[in-house]
Amino acid sequence: MAAVVFPTPSRAAGEAAAKVVADGGIIVYPTDTLYGFGVDPRDREAVARLYRIKGRERGKPLLLMVRDVEMAATIARFSPVARALAAAFWPGPLSLIVPLRDDVTVWGVGKDRSVGVRAPEHPFREHFFRYYDFPITSTSVNRSGEAPILDPQAICRVFAEKVATCVFDTEHPPRGIPSTVVRVEGESLHLVREGVLSYKTLCAYLRSQGYDVAPC
């Protein structure tokens, strides 16, 4: 069965996508950087299907999309440095890898029980989280090892039979450059991947707020 396609984010698209995720399905949705695959990370079977669709090695963790830092803090532990970065750069193209809370069980996270979270600056995030109250996966729409797919027609051609709902956006299309990923360990910052935001920008901001962060 082919996916139901919404040509642009709307409250109706957010509501429909939330229902699919709640029922254990997979969605495709837009962010400010790339299109993402979304499932509920608490659903072990849905996460396993997502890994199969992407052909992704099971040991590689998945990023999660959150509404805001308050939602992120329900599943992860935020140091003052992590909170400062989220306050300054969310919503936006910054992914923070932080420790998972001990009382939370989700799938697709790091072997060290770390989790990557971010709040994209995109209307879909706002619409979706009107109807859903838990983070969802935000892994790029592609097969593992291949470039992310940005063309909606190509996404439909490759994945429409494998997902339940696709939300695209012609007014606010993903820019095609991935988010910057940093690991925050206490007051230490480690660059994992430089994307839209430069590492120098993050370090300069933290220093301006009085944080003596290593190894900036």
Main traits of this protein?
alpha/beta, five-stranded mixed sheet, 216 residues, six-stranded mixed sheet, DHBP synthase
Q: Which structural class best describes the helix and strand composition?
A: alpha/beta
CATH superfamily: DHBP synthase
> What is Rg?
16 Å
The number of distinct helices, counting runs of at least 4 residues, comes to: 7
Q: Give the tally of β-strands.
A: 11
Which sequence of SSEs, written as H and E, runs from N to C? EHEEHEHHEEHEEHEEEH
What characteristic shape results from the CA principal axes? globular
How would a textbook summarize the main sheet?
6 strands, mixed
Distance, first to last CA? 50 Å
Helix percent reads 25-40%
Oligomeric organization of the protein chains: single chain
What proportion of the residues form beta strands (DSSP E)? 15-25%
Low-pLDDT segments, ≥5 res:
none
CATH topology: DHBP synthase
CATH architecture: Alpha-Beta Complex
Identify the strand order in the major beta sheet.
Answer: 7-4-6-5-10-11
Average predicted confidence as pLDDT: 95
Count of discrete structural domains: 1
Summarize the structure.
The chain contains 7 helices and 11 strands.
3D architecture notes:
It is globular, with a radius of gyration of 16 Å. It is α/β, with parallel strands linked by helices. Strands 7-4-6-5-10-11 form a six-stranded mixed beta sheet, with helices on one face. It is built from seven helices and eleven strands. Strand 10 and strand 11 (188-193) form a beta hairpin. The mean pLDDT is 95. The chain has helices at residues 11-22, 44-54, 69-72, 80-89, 123-128, 152-159, 199-208; strands at 4-6, 27-30, 35-38, 63-65, 94-99, 114-118, 136-137, 139-140, 165-167, 180-185, 188-193. It has one domain: DHBP synthase (Alpha-Beta Complex). It is 28% helix and 20% strand.
